[in-house]
Design a protein that fits this description.
By secondary structure, this protein is of the alpha/beta class. Helix content is 45%, strand content 11%. It is built from 11 helices and 8 strands. The strands form 2 sheets. The chain has a 4-stranded parallel sheet, with helices on one face. A 4-stranded parallel sheet has the order 6-5-7-8, sandwiched between helices. Helix 9 packs across helix 10. The chain is globular and about 60 Å long. The structure holds zinc ion (ZN). The site of zinc ion (ZN) has 8 residues, from loops.
Length: 308
């Protein structure tokens, strides 16, 4: 017997299952596009929420592999948290359209757009999508500034309370706790990086701009000629020349970026490749936002100390 039609029906039936709202399941079903937003949602939601991330910690947030299971997850969600500023433009819109869930539709209380309260950096004055640049509305990698994480946490708490008013006091208390932790840790991180104010760094993608701005590090070049465009030999040659001239000794690379390319540049410029991740869980011991930032700050501080 051919079970394919049955599987198809089962799949459609799964999509048609009535939404399990907070009143029925007990917990708010929260879906974040990437694990960094999921980690903050867990801090704010605590026991009142069940949080899933669509992207894996080791996936490039611009280019996530869209799967049928994502549609089911979105279909059952009470709240969706996305980074916004077109971070997920390449993969989220078709998933959302297929999931047809009014609770998380644009403008609904169950739809959080992280970038909304953020002062975006690198907003282009003119933009030509044909050139392939994926940062069309400014730089969407804003969570590596801890003060931006506080802004996003506030947005999340606000939306959780609207969707699930009975737990509003819990969300407010968790937000207060999160903010206090960030304030204390930020003071520590600023102190750790203070000796390296003005230090020059190269990154693979334009993904540490907000970190540079917060901690006084200069990101002088990127291995990608434009965000989302693979490094070309001509561009890499320019980067190597610049790194030698300006004595840049550190290249930051995330797990999904091409480490081999970075190693080649490092060999020719007397520098080191640093493995850092912006997604909790991509590197061991970084499951929370604070652990993740701790890891980023310490990795950079240690490398700059060596280079001094
Ligand atoms: Zn990017």
């Amino acid at each position: 017997m051919n079970i394919l039609p049955l599987l198809k029906i089962a799949a459609i039936a799964a999509l048609a299952v009535p939404h399990t709202g907070p009143e029925r399941a007990g917990k708010l079903n929260v879906v974040a596009t990437t694990p960094d937003f999921a980690a903050i949602a867990r801090e704010i939601g605590g026991d009142a929420v069940d949080v899933k991330a669509l992207a894996k910690p080791t996936e490039d947030p611009h280019f996530v592999d869209a799967k049928p299971s994502h549609v089911v997850t979105l279909n059952h969600a009470d709240v969706l948290i996305e980074g916004g500023a077109e971070l997920e433009m390449g993969w989220l819109p078709p998933l959302l359209e297929t999931a047809r869930n009014p609770k998380i539709a644009a403008g609904a209380p169950g739809h959080v757009v992280g970038s909304q309260g953020i002062r975006m950096l690198e907003i282009p004055t003119s933009f030509d999508r044909a050139k392939g640049d994926v940062h069309s509305l400014g730089n969407p990698h804003y969570l590596v500034d801890p003060l931006n994480a506080k802004i996003v946490a506030g947005e999340i708490a606000d939306h959780f309370s609207q969707v699930d008013p009975k737990s509003a006091a819990l969300y407010a208390a968790n937000l207060k706790k999160f903010n206090a932790t960030i304030d204390a840790k930020l003071a520590e991180w600023l102190k750790l990086l203070a000796p390296f104010k003005g230090a020059k760094i190269v990154t693979y993608h334009k993904d540490f701009v907000y970190l540079g701005e917060r901690f006084g590090l200069q990101i002088v070049e990127n291995l990608e000629p434009k965000p989302g465009i693979a490094p070309s030999p001509a561009h890499l040659a320019q980067v190597i020349t610049l790194m030698k001239a300006q004595k840049v000794h550190v290249i930051l690379v995330q797990p999904f970026q091409n480490r081999k390319t970075a190693e080649t540049v490092a060999r020719q410029s007397d520098s080191v490749v640093l493995d850092v991740a912006q997604q909790p869980g991509a590197i061991k011991g970084t499951d929370t936002y604070v652990d993740l930032m701790d890891s980023i700050v310490r990795t950079i501080a240690n490398a700059l100390k060596e280079a001094k």
